[in-house]
Protein: Helix-turn-helix transcriptional regulator
Amino acid sequence: MEFHERLVELRKERGFTREDFAEYLGISKYTLRNYELGKTEPGHVFLKYLANVFKVSVDYLLCTTDDRTPYNKTPAYTTQEIEHIKKYRDLDDHGKDIIDTILEKEYARCEDEYIEIAARGGKYKVKKESVVELAKSLDTEPYEVDHDLC
Structure:
């Protein structure tokens, strides 16, 4: 397999059309087409960007390995998230204000329902009610941890 084939494979796995993916990357569909046909290849800076988008290493993109070791960054946007962003950008100021207000209220509501716990060497978010139920089943009370002392 060669870079251009891997690029097509990764794009299709994520459900992007060539046109949507080119827009997402901020390049023309013709540039992406040339990459996918193997006519041209991106420079090293853009390869690093693609690796970040796909959450793979540059070595995987360049086909020097078949190991899909994830690139440790935030996951790429889903097609649905991209569609939401496109619609948001088309709204007027009033529409954006309404969406921003709802988003902030929902985010706060969800944040209030979860707490972060440390277990098995990692940090996890769990529902507060789960911790309270666990404490009741153990016949104890949940307690607050002073993170400044840790």
In short: The chain has two domains: 1-90, 93-137.
